[in-house]
Amino acid sequence: MILTDLSYFELLDYVQKMGLPRFRGEQIFDAIYSGKNLEEISNLPKGLKEQLLSIYPKYQILYKFESKDGTIKFLIKLDDDNAIESVLMKYKYGYTVCISTQVGCRMGCKFCASTLGGLVRNLTAGEMLGQILLINKFLGGKGSDRKITNVVLMGSGEPLDNYDNTIKFIELLSSQRGLNISQRNISISTCGLVDKIYQLADLKLNITLTISLHATSDEKRKSIMPIANRYTIKEIIDACKYYYKQTKRKIYFEYTLIADVNDSGEDQKSLKNILNGFLCHVNVIPLNTVKERSLKKTTRLMAYQFVEGLKKLGVSATVRRTMGEDIGGACGQLRANLLKL
């Protein structure tokens, strides 16, 4: 356990069980949410700092790479010396942070670098939160005076494969005592773990659900996403319809456009048929090349033409802005390069 795993009241209880007064817990909580490391806390006695040494978060930014478009990718070192990635993106409405939920990933999607080293372990809720706190501090924010407006769980790892920690993270992130980021500004991206989508739907959270679809037939999907051997597209869509029924939240579908795989007119028509009957939107993404993979990148012009075809069929769709491509923007690329070194 690390202290960022605890909510405000859990932290106060923990400190009181240590035999300390409540105000010490408040001081520790304020320090954590200001992004301070243990040495930077000036209002705690030395003996207490020594007591906290093994449970106070010590993760740090190892490297940061800035793209010409302003995107910044961070390689973050965890307490056990594992490394994960987070990405900071600036939009007109504010800053969005894309975080990792696992060290590596076991889903095996062929267009993603996160899976190249397999799954090492799940992140705790506090390790997910730590990425936000580090980057918020980098931006000059502290505590409730935060600079980050939106959070997406779309970095390395499959969030619903780490379900319990992901749900606890959402609770921590949206807590009024914490960073108080609205659940409406939190998005989870999943490759389609159907049983977990049903569980998530029953919680009736206000988060946005994004499905990594990337194909219009089970056979095509199996060729690029091993999870398709477990769940069919129909099963995923049924789960999405249930999620919409429970939450009334629009569902987003990520569709990475891969040359000669999923970019035909037939694919457009199939998408129309698949997504009929509930409120949803398709984000078309030109493949962000991973050199260890053999998939071919399509052009942005082709992506726009694909979207126009979808719109003519009545499908809500846009080309998603590609960010950070010149700094290894695809999930897991930075960590994969570090592993090689």
Strand content: 15-25%
> In order across it, which strands form the biggest sheet?
1-2-3-4-7-8-9-10-11-12
Give helix and strand order, one letter per element, not per position: HHHEEEEEEHEHEHEHHEHEHEH
Mean pLDDT: 92
Enumerate how many helices there are, as a single number: 11
Using only C-alpha atoms, the radius of gyration works out to: 21 Å
Main pleated-sheet profile: 10 strands, mixed
Shape: elongated
Structural class given helices, strands, pairing? alpha/beta
Low-confidence stretches: none
Report the span from N to C terminus. 30 Å
Work out the number of β strands: 12
The percent of residues in helical segments reads 25-40%
Describe the structure.
The chain is α/β, with parallel strands linked by helices and 341 residues long. 35% of the residues lie in helices and 20% in strands. The protein is built from 11 helices and 12 strands. The strands form 2 sheets. The protein has a 10-stranded mixed sheet. β8, α6 and β9 form a beta-alpha-beta unit. It is elongated and about 70 Å long.
